Structures are given as C-alpha cells and as structure tokens.
C-alpha cells in the first residue's frame, strides 16, 4: 500500500500595507511597496523653503501649490528632469478624479505628495534627476580643450561627443547640442556657454560623457 500523499507547503505571501475594513480593523491588502528613503537634510530643508514661496495662502488651500508651478519648483531644488519625467511626477502627485474635491479653481498639489514624489525620484533614479555640477562639466570640457582656446569649432565638438569612448552621442543628440550651444555670430561653441546651458538643461545630455563606462 502506497503512503498517503502529503501536500507541499505553499509559498508564504508577502504582507501588503494594512488597510482598514468597515469595522476599523487593519488587514493586509496588496504587496508592500519598497520603502523610500528620506531626502538628504539640505534637500529636505530646501524643498520646504521653495514650497513656501509657491504655497497658496488663505482658505483651505494652505499647504498646496498650483500644479502649473510644480515644474519651476522642482527645478528650484537643483533637479532638472525632462518634460516626460515631469509629466510622470505630476501624474504621481495628482489626486484621482473620483477622490478629488469639487473645486472651480486650478488643480493643486499638496506638500506631502510633492515631497514623496521627489524622494522617490531622487532615491531611485538619482542620475536622471540631479544636475551634474557646473565645476565638473567645466573641468571635463577644459581637459579636452587642448588648444586652451576656451571654445570649440562646431564640427570639432560634434566629432568629440560622437567619438566619446564611454557614451558616444548619436547624430541627433550632437545636432541638438550644437543647435542650442553654437554662438550665432561666431559659429563657435564657447565652453562657459555650454556649461551654463547644461547646468540648466540636462536633457541635452552632454553630462553623460562624464559618466564612467559600464562594466
């Protein structure tokens, strides 16, 4: 006679965040999201200061900013996401339509939602959201300015970025950079102008030249 079959123990389920049922009791609901670290102290202080500059005063709007001001606010933190990344952050901050209070005013964002979205972006994708320091960009460009001229011919810079040994530019990326950085009067690309430009707009991508090559 064969031995009776024994059932194999099932895989333990991960505990999700607790939600309250109708009786007010907490029960697990869905897989728990990874914890998001706090912001560095300097950025934590800055986000509160910048938020205060845009905060809607009076009535029930205290503690909120208009959604249209969020891109400027985020860039005021020293972050420079692309337009697509900004829209992603805004989508995360928006209150679902079903839960949003009826209001005739412009859409707003609370400090809590803004702070959480920034924390998640900075902790999970720091290279995409933090600017490369201007001093680092300046040092890197001066290192390849072998003639110590303080500028490049447009074609010279194009060849330089497209032949980078770590992160070469595509033709389209190089054209975008040159269109934004070339001096219209001289046709040259001045290092100081490039550094200032890229300090404001990471989307041009020159800072990727400074990243170490992948292992």
UniProtKB/TrEMBL annotation:
PROSITE patterns: EF_HAND_2. Residues 1-42 are annotated as: Disordered. This is EF-hand domain-containing protein. Residues 132-167 form the EF-hand domain. It comes from Klebsormidium nitens (Green alga). Residues 1-10 have a biased composition (Polar residues). GO terms for molecular function: calcium ion binding. PANTHER family: DYNEIN REGULATORY COMPLEX PROTEIN 8 (PTHR23048:SF32), MYOSIN LIGHT CHAIN 1, 3 (PTHR23048).
């Amino acid at each position: 006679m064969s031995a009776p079959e024994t059932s194999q123990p099932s895989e333990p389920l991960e505990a999700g965040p607790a939600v309250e049922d109708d009786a007010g009791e907490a029960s697990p609901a869905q897989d728990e999201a990874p914890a998001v670290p706090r912001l560095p102290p300097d950025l934590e202080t800055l986000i509160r200061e910048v938020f205060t500059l845009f905060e809607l005063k009076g009535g029930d709007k205290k503690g909120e900013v208009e959604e249209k001001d969020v891109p400027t606010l985020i860039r005021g933190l020293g972050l420079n996401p692309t337009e697509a990344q900004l829209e992603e952050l805004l989508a995360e901050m928006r209150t679902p339509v079903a839960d949003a209070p009826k209001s005739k005013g412009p859409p707003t964002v609370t400090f809590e939602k803004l702070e959480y979205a920034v924390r998640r972006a900075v902790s999970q994708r720091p290279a995409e959201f933090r600017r490369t320091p201007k001093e680092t960009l300046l040092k890197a460009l001066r290192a390849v300015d072998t003639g110590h001229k303080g500028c490049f011919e447009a074609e010279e810079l194009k060849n330089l970025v497209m032949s980078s040994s770590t992160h070469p530019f595509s033709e389209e990326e190089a054209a975008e950079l040159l269109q934004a950085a070339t001096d219209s009067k001289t046709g040259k690309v001045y290092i100081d102008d490039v550094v200032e430009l890229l300090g404001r707009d990471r989307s041009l991508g020159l800072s990727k030249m400074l990243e170490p090559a992948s292992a």
